[in-house]
Specification:
By secondary structure, this protein is an all-alpha fold. Among the domains are: 37-318, M75 peptidase, HXXE motif (A middle domain of Talin 1); 322-468, Cytochrome c-like domain (Cytochrome Bc1 Complex, Chain D, domain 2). It has helices at 15-31, 43-50, 53-83, 87-114, 116-123, 145-152, 161-183, 189-205, 219-234, 238-261, 271-292, 332-342, 355-358, 405-414, 423-431, 434-443, 454-467, 474-479, 488-497, 548-551, 583-591, 594-597, 616-627, 639-654, and strands spanning 10-12, 129-130, 139-140, 523-527, 559-561. It has a 3-stranded antiparallel sheet with strand order 1-4-5, with no helix packed on it. A two-stranded antiparallel ribbon has the order 2-3. A hairpin with an 8-residue loop joins strand 2 (129-130) and strand 3. Helix 3 packs antiparallel against helix 9, helix 4 runs antiparallel to helix 6 (145-152) and helix 9 (219-234) runs antiparallel to helix 10 (238-261). The longest helix has 31 residues, at 53-83.
Length: 656
């Protein structure tokens, strides 16, 4: 089995996520026909900037032509390798592959923006793609660069060379499709600069972690190639920016590219230094240049705010971009009502269980159990995950069976083994409570006499859940530039997490969950082989089939959502079944190669089956890094949370 990096995952895109992606593409095409430079800007700069999209397009098409040439050279090298079994021929094929993907990286920032589907086919993960909209049998085979990479690295598989040739020729056809689309595309200034911003976000969240170079480990030089492609395209704005303006931006590019060029091997690359000293300053320089050109930001609503320069900026994320279309930001009254309902036992069928029963603020909104207690006492529920930052993801529950938080609320309330009620039944109770009638009327003033309703119960609780956003841990402060916020061991752990340990290829920085940056329109599920109980050998798989319960698709057997590792120090035990009691035991599990590494026979595991090779010192550093991701203060100290904890303690003392 080839060593497959941890980033490989079964891609899940729920239909609302697909809808958002289609809408985004539609907006992009619509805006491509519009001018976007502010009319009140300097006339010379405005005129120059508005005419430069054509030149950027010409350079893009030219770079795609170069990419076609490199892929053609790869094909020739592979054909030669069939006839010539020498090591030199194998090395030549690897060199041609490396050159071809570097060429792709130079066109990536515009390709992924204007032609995302074709880009996915060119450089998507080397795993089957499950289209759950089409039914359980709709499983598409992997294709593109990463499939070829598996066949050529670390050592070329001669028996698979015909497959590599076929895949390379398919790849060539996709790139021809990209060229055709690019030739007819009208690029506008706002979209060009937006694409550049998103590409830099892609580099820091996916590129330098090894996300799409899992076997060849060429991520660092590929990041440099991506920056060179951006710099070449944006250099057409040199005159419009003026000498000093362009010099400032060019210097930022040069700093970042130079740091990547002189970097050591993949495992030793200092990612924190690159982010804070090169990538973040370049993000600000890009934004400053856009402002100087008087180019407006796009008006798209998305998770990574169009107004933010960097993924690591405070306030970079819009939690409502993960909500259903047309969802309005909650009012303070709605959040306060949702908070009260979260701690309200009358939400359940027998008025005995509240949301906080399994999501206790004192435990970072978990219950500290291996599995939550079912209502009947016989059903085997999954481990209760934290709901801090639950609004910053596409999909809820371990099996991603709901997309939006409002649906998660309904699902839990009506589940026979959880709350065994309904939001309508709960609303009927609250209508008989004068205080709740006042609170609902205040939260939903337009609803008049119908304010106390099932839909409004859902809306209020979801509003409260979205308010539980906490992105100011010591790690966040370090990534924003205050590198003294973490100590040397935690910094080592951060670099391991985003590098050698491969954690960051599934738990994407800076949210550290499985929703894929930089567009955040889909969440990944992973098959990691969680055992029924903690083991290091001769383990047995936990029988919970995971995502397959929802999709009925075989590749999703034992697949589970990639959760956030934020606040993981407070949310033990771990995994959907609580099999691992400590973070150290979790890291050890991954280091051994997941389920396959501890003796489970699992054909569809998406985790590397070989050891990560982390030393004891390195494993401890990864744990220390995750502990530094703790940030709960402002989401666990509400009066309701304090009162709930007091009631729990009182009941515990009374039961002694």
């Amino acid at each position: 089995m080839h060593v497959i990096a941890a980033r490989q995952a079964q891609h899940l895109v729920s239909w609302p996520a697909r809808l958002r992606r289609c809408l985004t593409a539609g907006v992009t095409l619509l805006m491509s026909a519009c001018g976007t430079v502010r009319p009140d800007g300097d006339s010379a700069a405005t005129t120059a900037a508005s005419l430069l999209g054509r030149e950027v397009n010409a350079r893009w098409v030219s770079d795609i032509d170069a990419l076609l040439g490199d892929v053609g050279a790869l094909d020739s090298a592979l054909v030669m390798s069939v006839r010539d079994s020498s090591a030199a021929a194998a090395r030549l094929a690897q060199a041609r592959f490396t050159a071809a993907r570097l060429a792709y990286k130079r066109v990536e920032f515009l390709a992924t923006y204007y032609e995302p589907s074709t880009s996915d086919a060119i450089n998507g993960p080397a795993l089957p793609h499950v289209d759950d909209e089409e039914g359980p049998e709709a499983v598409m085979p992997p294709e593109g660069f990463q499939v070829v990479e598996e066949l050529l690295f670390p050592v070329a598989d001669r028996s698979a060379l015909p497959d590599a040739i076929n895949e390379t020729r398919n790849l060539y056809a996709y790139i021809r499709r990209l060229r055709t689309a690019a030739s007819g595309q009208r690029l506008t200034d706002d979209r060009i600069w937006d694409a550049a911003k998103l590409q830099l976000a892609r580099i820091v969240s996916l590129g330098i972690t090894g996300f799409d170079s899992p076997v060849a480990l060429q991520s660092v030089p590929e990041a440099a190639a991506a920056l060179r492609g951006m710099r070449n395209a944006l250099s057409v704005y040199r005159t419009a920016l003026g000498g000093r303006g362009w010099a400032t931006l060019a210097a930022s590019f040069e700093t970042a590219i130079s740091e990547l060029d002189r970097s050591p091997a993949f495992a030793e690359f200092d990612r924190l230094a690159f982010i804070t000293q090169s990538a973040n300053p370049l993000a600000r320089a890009l934004d400053d240049a856009r402002v100087a050109l008087r180019i407006v930001v796009t008006n798209d609503r998305r998770a990574f705010r169009t107004e933010a320069a960097s993924l690591f900026d405070a306030g970079a994320f819009d939690v409502y971009a993960f909500a259903a279309p047309q969802t309005m930001p909650a009012t303070a009254e709605q959040v306060a009502l949702g908070r009260a309902l979260f701690f309200e036992p009358r939400l359940s069928g027998d008025a005995a269980v509240a949301c906080a029963t399994c999501h206790d603020p004192a435990r970072a909104f978990t219950d500290g159990r291996e599995r939550s207690v079912s209502r009947s006492g016989t059903a085997s529920l999954r481990n209760a995950p934290t709901i801090i930052n639950a609004g910053l993801q596409v999909g809820s529950f371990y099996d991603l069976r709901t997309t939006y938080l409002e649906d998660q609320v309904s699902d839990v309330v009506r589940n026979d083994e959880e709350m065994h009620g309904s939001v309508e039944q709960a609303a009927a109770r609250f209508r008989r409570d004068a205080q709740y009638r006042v609170r609902f009327a205040s939260a939903f003033p337009r609803s008049a006499d119908s304010a106390v309703s099932g839909p409004n119960v859902r809306i209020a609780i979801a509003a409260y859940l979205r308010s539980l956003t906490a992105l100011d841990s010591r790690v966040d402060r370090a990534l924003r530039g205050d590198t003294t916020a973490i100590d040397a061991e935690e910094r080592h752990g951060l670099n391991l997490f985003l590098g050698k340990a491969r954690c960051g290829t599934c738990h994407f920085a800076p949210l550290f969950n499985g929703t894929v940056p930089p567009m955040y329109q889909e969440s990944e599920v992973e098959v990691i082989g969680v055992p029924a109980r903690r083991a290091t050998r001769n383990a047995r798989i936990d029988p919970d089939s995971g995502r397959m319960r929802v999709t009925r698709s075989v590749p999703h057997r034992y697949a589970f959502k990639t959760p956030s590792v934020r606040n993981a120090a407070l949310t033990a035990p771990y995994m959907h079944n609580g099999a691992y009691p400590t973070l150290a035991s979790v890291v050890d599990f991954y280091n051994r190669g997941g389920g396959v590494g501890i003796g489970i026979r699992l054909e569809n595991q998406t985790l590397p089956a070989d050891t990560l090779g982390l030393t004891t010192v390195e494993q401890r550093a990864v744990v220390r890094f995750m502990e530094a991701l703790t940030d709960t203060a402002h989401v666990t100290s509400s009066p309701e949370a304090i009162a709930y904890r007091q009631r729990v303690v009182k009941r515990a003392l009374a039961g002694r």
